[in-house]
Design brief:
With 195 residues, the chain is an alpha+beta fold. Helices cover 20% and strands 34% of the residues. The chain is built from three helices and ten strands.
Length: 195
């Protein structure tokens, strides 16, 4: 299910492009190997893996474009009413286009549930890194109005958000949901490898 959500974000980010999805980068494989090595050595169960970030790359050979993606799933689940009951997780998805410098994009994907962005001009959510202050972020729906995805819409906020993610602090994201209001999801952003 998690893999399907991440792939869903990839597809939306690549709409209209011919694509070929490659497996995780060598860096990700090294991190996974390191995590496996720790588990094999019998380290205590309180020790966290080096990172929970997942990486993928998509290449459009015809246009010579490479898109990179990173995804991080929330630590907690939020309960919604039927038909979305059973616990819902949020994924932060980062996107970068090789042809456009500084083209980072940030999306939020809910596995079960619907976001609510009442205005055509977008809506707002809130974030809090570590012990920092609460910050408002500008959000927009996807072009196809998919209610499971919200994107950050302000370039300066995107840059700041990614820089703070790189510091590996704990993060709380609060987003608006249909008929249930704002809900909060927590993340540990440790180990993000994003240039």
């Amino acid at each position: 299910m998690k893999k399907l959500l991440f792939i869903g974000f990839l597809i939306l980010g690549l709409a209209g492009c011919s694509k070929h999805i490659e497996e995780k980068s060598a860096d990700t494989n090294q991190v996974e190997a390191s995590n496996d090595d720790l588990a094999k050595k019998g380290n205590n169960s309180d020790q966290k893996p080096l990172t929970s970030w997942r990486y993928e790359e998509s290449k459009d050979e015809m246009r010579n474009i490479s898109l990179k993606f990173a995804g991080l799933e929330s630590n907690n689940t939020v309960e919604f009413e039927f038909p979305y009951n059973g616990g819902s997780k949020l994924t932060i998805a980062l996107r970068k286009n090789s042809q456009t410098p500084n083209s980072d994009g940030v999306g939020f994907l809910i596995d079960k549930g619907q976001f609510f962005c009442a205005s055509m001009d977008g809506c707002t959510g809130s974030i809090k890194f570590g012990n920092g202050s609460i910050e408002k972020i500008n959000l927009k729906m996807s072009d196809d109005q998919n209610s499971k995805i919200l994107y950050m819409s302000n370039e300066e906020q995107i840059k700041s958000f990614i820089q703070k993610l790189k510091k590996g602090e704990n993060l709380i994201v609060e987003l608006p949901f249909f008929q249930t209001g704002d809900r909060q999801f927590s993340f540990d952003s440790t180990g993000l490898d994003w240039d």
